Amino acid sequence: MKINKFGRARILSPDELDTLIDAIPYSPHKVLAILLRYTGARVSEGLKSKWEYYTDTHFIYPAPTTKTKETRKIPISSKLRIELDTWKAYVEPESETEYIFKGRFGSHLTRQSMDKKLKLYSPYKGVSTHSFRRSCLTAMNRAKVPLNVIASLSGHSSMNSLRLYLGIDEKEQIEAINCL
Fold first, then answer.
1. Domain total for the chain?
2. Domain span at residue 80?
3. pLDDT band at residue 66, thresholds of 50, 70 and 90?
4. Hey, what long-range contacts does 23-31 have (CB within 8 A, 24 or more apart)?
5. The CATH number of the domain where 82 resides is what?
6. Which of the pair, 175 or 100, is modelled with greater confidence?
7. Total-model pTM
């Protein structure tokens, strides 16, 4: 668990993610948390998102905004579509090139701003912006989604680096031992 910027970000269950998101007042921070929960993106990718990256079927993380400098297309879940459509109607962007999560000074929100809101509203210890990514990827893994599919969504080119994101709990270890 991450404490005082040391360790790994806590992995939350889907129910815990929902509780955390519900605790954040309606704001760009809340909608960003929802985007991260349903795409498994890095917070830096989410922060740089523009309306033009959101389509009827996918959310696109273009190469210049990703760590790997490769474009990723993530299918949009119905829950995420509802939230983004509601947010778009709320903020009424003047153009598709606007940031989805606008900051106070014309650019996008900052990582520090998101970190501050998480610390303020999270009912859990060890949560950071990276908790959304680790939780999303772990949930897919626990649902038996093949690792190569998870890697295609997360942008990991190495299975070894992807495995570092995935949480393993004692129940899974017991199940593994019991199949021997």
1. 1
2. 14-178
3. confident
4. 23/121, 23/122, 23/123, 24/117, 24/121, 25/121, 27/117, 28/87, 28/100, 28/101, 28/102, 28/109, 29/101, 29/109, 29/113, 29/114, 29/117, 31/83, 31/84, 31/87, 31/100, 31/101
5. 1.10.443.10
6. 100
7. 0.86
